[in-house]
Amino acid sequence: MMLRFVITASMVAIALLILGSVVVSSKASVAADQLCDVTADSALGREDYSTAVVLHRNVLHSDPGNALAHYHLGFAYGMLGRDSEELSEYETSARLGLKSWDLFLNLGIAYFSQHQLGRAEQALETAVFFGAKHAEAHFNLAIVYEAENKLDEALREITAAQHLAPEDLDTANVNAIICIEMGNAERAHDIWQRLVQRAPGYAPARANLKILNRSLLPNGQFLHTAQFSTALSN
Description:
The protein is 62% helix and 0% strand. By secondary structure, the protein is mostly helical. The longest helix is centred in the N-terminal third of the chain and has 14 residues, at 49-62.
C-alpha cells in the first residue's frame, strides 16, 4: 500500500485574476495602454461570470486583437467550468503578446488540470519570470515539478514560495511532501509537527503527520521512503 499524503486542503490550485494589471515586454504586440471594457470587467469584479462572457465576447467582436479581453474572457469561462474555452482564450491572449504573470499562472493551472505537464511547466516558468515576487507562481510551479518528479526544482520553488509567504500553510505542507519524496522524513515530520502546533485546525498537516507516524520503527527511526509502500500493507 503506497502512502498517499494530502497536498492541500482543497487539492485545487486557485485561479487568480488581477484586473488591469498588465506587464508588457518591449517586443510584445500588445500596446502598453491597451485596456479592456470597463463594463465587461465590472461584471468580472462582481463575479457575474455569465454576463462577463457575453460582454467580453462583444468587445472581441469589434476588437479581436485585444489580448486583455481574451484573457478576461478565458477567466470567466474558467469560473463557469468551461475548461476548453478557458484554455483556448488564455492561449490566444499569450499568442497576441500579453505578458501578465497572472495570465501565465492561470494558463499553467489550466494545462495542469488537463494533465499537460510539459506545457504547464513552461507556462508557470513564464509566470515566475514575470512575477518572481508572487508566491502563487512559485507554489504552482513546485506542484508541477513534483508531479514530474523533478524534486530538486520542486524544492527550490516551494522554498521560494515560503520565503514570499512564510505564514501560508499549504506551502509548508507541500514542502514537507517534497522532503518525504527526497528521503528526508525527519524534516517532513518536523514541518508537520510545527504546522499542527501552529494551526491545529489545518487538516492536511494532521493527516500527514498521522500517516508518517505510522511508519515509525520500534526504535523511533523513520522507515526509508522506499519502504513506505510495505509499511502499511498489514
